[in-house]
Specification:
The protein has 256 residues and is mostly beta strands. The chain has one helix and 39 strands. The protein is elongated and about 60 Å long.
Length: 256
Protein backbone atom coordinates (compact mmCIF):
# COMPACT_ATOMS: atom_id res chain seq x y z
CA UNK A 1 0.00 0.00 0.00
CA UNK A 2 1.08 3.56 -0.65
CA UNK A 3 -0.08 6.17 1.82
CA UNK A 4 0.07 9.54 0.09
CA UNK A 5 -0.43 12.38 2.57
CA UNK A 6 1.74 14.81 0.62
CA UNK A 7 0.64 18.45 1.02
CA UNK A 8 -2.21 17.27 3.28
CA UNK A 9 -3.45 19.12 6.37
CA UNK A 10 -3.25 16.60 9.23
CA UNK A 11 -4.83 17.02 12.66
CA UNK A 12 -5.22 13.45 14.00
CA UNK A 13 -2.93 10.91 15.74
CA UNK A 14 -1.31 8.05 13.82
CA UNK A 15 0.07 6.01 16.70
CA UNK A 16 0.59 2.22 16.70
CA UNK A 17 0.34 1.76 12.93
CA UNK A 18 2.37 -0.04 10.29
CA UNK A 19 2.83 2.30 7.35
CA UNK A 20 4.24 1.25 3.98
CA UNK A 21 5.60 3.88 1.61
CA UNK A 22 4.36 6.75 3.75
CA UNK A 23 4.54 10.01 1.83
CA UNK A 24 4.07 13.04 4.09
CA UNK A 25 6.17 15.42 2.01
CA UNK A 26 5.08 19.06 2.38
CA UNK A 27 2.24 18.02 4.69
CA UNK A 28 1.25 20.33 7.53
CA UNK A 29 0.38 19.03 11.00
CA UNK A 30 -2.11 21.38 12.62
CA UNK A 31 -2.02 19.47 15.92
CA UNK A 32 0.56 17.33 17.68
CA UNK A 33 2.14 14.86 15.25
CA UNK A 34 1.77 11.49 16.95
CA UNK A 35 3.72 8.55 15.50
CA UNK A 36 4.55 6.61 18.67
CA UNK A 37 5.35 2.93 18.08
CA UNK A 38 4.74 3.28 14.32
CA UNK A 39 6.67 0.99 11.97
CA UNK A 40 7.58 2.48 8.59
CA UNK A 41 8.32 -0.61 6.48
CA UNK A 42 9.37 1.24 3.31
CA UNK A 43 10.30 4.83 2.54
CA UNK A 44 9.13 7.40 5.07
CA UNK A 45 9.07 10.77 3.32
CA UNK A 46 8.68 13.78 5.63
CA UNK A 47 10.67 16.15 3.43
CA UNK A 48 9.58 19.80 3.78
CA UNK A 49 6.88 18.76 6.26
CA UNK A 50 5.68 21.47 8.65
CA UNK A 51 5.15 20.31 12.24
CA UNK A 52 3.36 23.26 13.87
CA UNK A 53 3.12 21.54 17.28
CA UNK A 54 5.13 18.88 19.11
CA UNK A 55 6.16 15.82 17.09
CA UNK A 56 6.31 12.45 18.83
CA UNK A 57 8.17 9.58 17.15
CA UNK A 58 8.91 7.70 20.39
CA UNK A 59 9.64 4.00 19.76
CA UNK A 60 8.96 4.35 16.03
CA UNK A 61 10.90 2.08 13.66
CA UNK A 62 12.21 3.22 10.28
CA UNK A 63 13.14 0.12 8.29
CA UNK A 64 13.96 1.82 5.00
CA UNK A 65 14.91 5.36 3.98
CA UNK A 66 13.70 8.12 6.31
CA UNK A 67 13.73 11.55 4.70
CA UNK A 68 13.08 14.61 6.89
CA UNK A 69 15.11 16.99 4.73
CA UNK A 70 13.88 20.59 4.88
CA UNK A 71 11.26 19.81 7.52
CA UNK A 72 10.30 22.40 10.14
CA UNK A 73 9.64 21.34 13.75
CA UNK A 74 8.04 24.25 15.57
CA UNK A 75 7.42 22.39 18.82
CA UNK A 76 9.46 19.73 20.58
CA UNK A 77 10.68 16.88 18.39
CA UNK A 78 10.97 13.54 20.21
CA UNK A 79 12.75 10.59 18.65
CA UNK A 80 13.63 9.23 22.08
CA UNK A 81 13.31 5.63 23.20
CA UNK A 82 15.81 3.64 21.15
CA UNK A 83 14.08 4.59 17.91
CA UNK A 84 15.96 2.57 15.26
CA UNK A 85 16.75 4.09 11.88
CA UNK A 86 17.81 1.01 9.92
CA UNK A 87 18.70 2.47 6.52
CA UNK A 88 19.53 5.96 5.23
CA UNK A 89 18.44 8.92 7.36
CA UNK A 90 18.28 12.46 6.03
CA UNK A 91 17.76 15.36 8.42
CA UNK A 92 19.60 17.86 6.22
CA UNK A 93 18.44 21.49 6.41
CA UNK A 94 15.87 20.64 9.10
CA UNK A 95 14.85 23.45 11.45
CA UNK A 96 14.21 22.44 15.06
CA UNK A 97 12.63 25.48 16.71
CA UNK A 98 11.87 23.59 19.94
CA UNK A 99 13.98 21.04 21.78
CA UNK A 100 15.15 18.09 19.68
CA UNK A 101 15.48 14.83 21.61
CA UNK A 102 17.34 11.97 19.90
CA UNK A 103 18.57 10.40 23.14
CA UNK A 104 19.03 6.61 22.98
CA UNK A 105 18.22 6.61 19.26
CA UNK A 106 20.01 4.09 17.03
CA UNK A 107 21.26 5.11 13.59
CA UNK A 108 22.24 1.84 11.92
CA UNK A 109 23.59 3.38 8.70
CA UNK A 110 24.67 6.80 7.43
CA UNK A 111 22.93 9.80 9.00
CA UNK A 112 22.90 13.28 7.49
CA UNK A 113 22.17 16.41 9.56
CA UNK A 114 24.08 18.74 7.24
CA UNK A 115 22.80 22.32 7.38
CA UNK A 116 20.30 21.63 10.18
CA UNK A 117 19.40 24.37 12.64
CA UNK A 118 18.84 23.50 16.32
CA UNK A 119 17.36 26.62 17.93
CA UNK A 120 17.07 25.10 21.41
CA UNK A 121 18.56 22.04 23.09
CA UNK A 122 19.80 19.20 20.91
CA UNK A 123 19.95 16.00 22.95
CA UNK A 124 21.80 13.03 21.43
CA UNK A 125 22.83 11.51 24.76
CA UNK A 126 23.52 7.75 24.54
CA UNK A 127 22.62 7.60 20.84
CA UNK A 128 24.46 5.14 18.59
CA UNK A 129 25.75 6.04 15.13
CA UNK A 130 26.89 2.90 13.29
CA UNK A 131 27.50 4.55 9.90
CA UNK A 132 29.00 7.89 8.93
CA UNK A 133 27.24 10.90 10.41
CA UNK A 134 27.48 14.49 9.17
CA UNK A 135 26.77 17.52 11.34
CA UNK A 136 28.54 19.72 8.84
CA UNK A 137 27.39 23.35 8.72
CA UNK A 138 24.91 22.72 11.55
CA UNK A 139 24.00 25.56 13.92
CA UNK A 140 23.53 24.59 17.57
CA UNK A 141 22.05 27.65 19.27
CA UNK A 142 21.10 25.76 22.42
CA UNK A 143 23.16 23.19 24.29
CA UNK A 144 24.48 20.30 22.18
CA UNK A 145 24.47 17.08 24.21
CA UNK A 146 26.49 14.11 22.96
CA UNK A 147 27.16 12.44 26.30
CA UNK A 148 27.66 8.70 26.09
CA UNK A 149 27.21 8.66 22.31
CA UNK A 150 28.91 5.89 20.32
CA UNK A 151 30.29 6.87 16.91
CA UNK A 152 31.44 3.72 15.12
CA UNK A 153 32.38 5.41 11.84
CA UNK A 154 33.23 8.98 10.76
CA UNK A 155 31.69 11.93 12.60
CA UNK A 156 31.91 15.23 10.72
CA UNK A 157 31.55 18.56 12.58
CA UNK A 158 33.27 20.75 9.97
CA UNK A 159 31.83 24.32 9.78
CA UNK A 160 29.51 23.53 12.67
CA UNK A 161 28.63 26.49 14.91
CA UNK A 162 28.21 25.93 18.64
CA UNK A 163 26.57 28.96 20.28
CA UNK A 164 26.05 27.33 23.66
CA UNK A 165 27.50 24.49 25.75
CA UNK A 166 28.81 21.28 24.20
CA UNK A 167 29.09 17.95 26.00
CA UNK A 168 30.92 14.86 24.76
CA UNK A 169 31.31 13.41 28.27
CA UNK A 170 31.84 9.63 28.07
CA UNK A 171 31.33 9.61 24.28
CA UNK A 172 33.15 6.93 22.28
CA UNK A 173 34.65 7.42 18.83
CA UNK A 174 35.32 3.77 18.11
CA UNK A 175 37.41 3.76 14.95
CA UNK A 176 38.04 7.34 13.82
CA UNK A 177 38.80 10.64 15.47
CA UNK A 178 36.00 13.20 15.01
CA UNK A 179 36.51 15.73 12.22
CA UNK A 180 36.25 19.39 13.25
CA UNK A 181 38.48 20.95 10.59
CA UNK A 182 39.29 20.37 6.91
CA UNK A 183 41.74 22.71 5.25
CA UNK A 184 40.52 26.25 6.05
CA UNK A 185 37.06 25.10 7.10
CA UNK A 186 36.57 24.67 10.84
CA UNK A 187 34.01 24.42 13.61
CA UNK A 188 33.28 27.56 15.68
CA UNK A 189 32.60 27.87 19.40
CA UNK A 190 31.04 30.84 21.19
CA UNK A 191 33.42 32.76 23.45
CA UNK A 192 30.41 34.08 25.38
CA UNK A 193 30.26 30.77 27.25
CA UNK A 194 32.21 29.67 30.29
CA UNK A 195 35.23 27.56 29.23
CA UNK A 196 33.88 24.75 31.43
CA UNK A 197 30.75 24.58 29.25
CA UNK A 198 32.80 22.75 26.60
CA UNK A 199 33.40 19.18 27.73
CA UNK A 200 35.34 16.76 25.51
CA UNK A 201 36.05 14.10 28.16
CA UNK A 202 35.49 11.03 26.00
CA UNK A 203 35.87 7.45 27.22
CA UNK A 204 39.41 6.11 27.68
CA UNK A 205 38.82 3.45 25.01
CA UNK A 206 37.74 6.13 22.52
CA UNK A 207 39.76 7.70 19.77
CA UNK A 208 40.81 11.09 21.17
CA UNK A 209 39.40 14.53 20.54
CA UNK A 210 42.66 16.40 19.99
CA UNK A 211 42.34 19.69 21.85
CA UNK A 212 44.14 22.98 21.61
CA UNK A 213 43.88 26.32 23.35
CA UNK A 214 42.90 29.74 22.09
CA UNK A 215 41.74 33.00 23.70
CA UNK A 216 39.00 35.52 23.04
CA UNK A 217 37.18 38.05 25.25
CA UNK A 218 39.93 37.56 27.83
CA UNK A 219 39.09 33.88 28.29
CA UNK A 220 41.12 30.83 27.26
CA UNK A 221 39.29 27.74 26.04
CA UNK A 222 40.29 24.17 25.28
CA UNK A 223 38.50 23.30 22.05
CA UNK A 224 39.31 20.91 19.18
CA UNK A 225 42.65 21.62 17.57
CA UNK A 226 42.48 24.14 14.71
CA UNK A 227 38.94 25.33 15.50
CA UNK A 228 38.14 28.91 16.53
CA UNK A 229 36.20 30.99 19.01
CA UNK A 230 33.80 33.73 17.93
CA UNK A 231 32.18 36.65 19.70
CA UNK A 232 28.41 36.46 18.99
CA UNK A 233 28.06 40.20 19.57
CA UNK A 234 30.84 41.51 17.35
CA UNK A 235 31.63 38.46 15.18
CA UNK A 236 35.28 38.81 16.13
CA UNK A 237 37.13 35.52 15.92
CA UNK A 238 40.15 34.04 17.64
CA UNK A 239 43.26 32.45 16.24
CA UNK A 240 42.84 28.72 15.53
CA UNK A 241 43.37 26.60 18.63
CA UNK A 242 47.02 25.61 18.95
CA UNK A 243 48.37 22.42 20.52
CA UNK A 244 48.24 22.75 24.27
CA UNK A 245 51.94 22.05 24.77
CA UNK A 246 52.86 24.81 22.28
CA UNK A 247 50.55 27.26 24.02
CA UNK A 248 52.14 26.50 27.38
CA UNK A 249 55.61 26.99 25.93
CA UNK A 250 54.66 30.37 24.50
CA UNK A 251 53.22 31.52 27.81
CA UNK A 252 56.42 30.53 29.67
CA UNK A 253 58.76 32.14 27.15
CA UNK A 254 60.38 35.21 28.80
CA UNK A 255 60.02 38.58 27.14
CA UNK A 256 63.07 39.72 25.18
Amino acid sequence: FEFDFSRAPIFYPLNDLTIEKGNFSSAKFHAKAEFSRVTFTCNADFSRTNFTHDADFIDATFIDNADFSGAIFTGEAKFIGATPFINAKDFSRVTFTGNADFSNTEFLSAANFMGANFVHEANFNNAKFTGDVSFRDVIFTGEAKFGGVTFTSNANFVETTFKSGVGFYKATFTNFEPIFIVSCLYARFSAAMNPRDYNFSVMTKSQPVNLGTTTLLGKTFEIPLGTILFDPDSNDISEPAKPIENSDAEEEKPAE
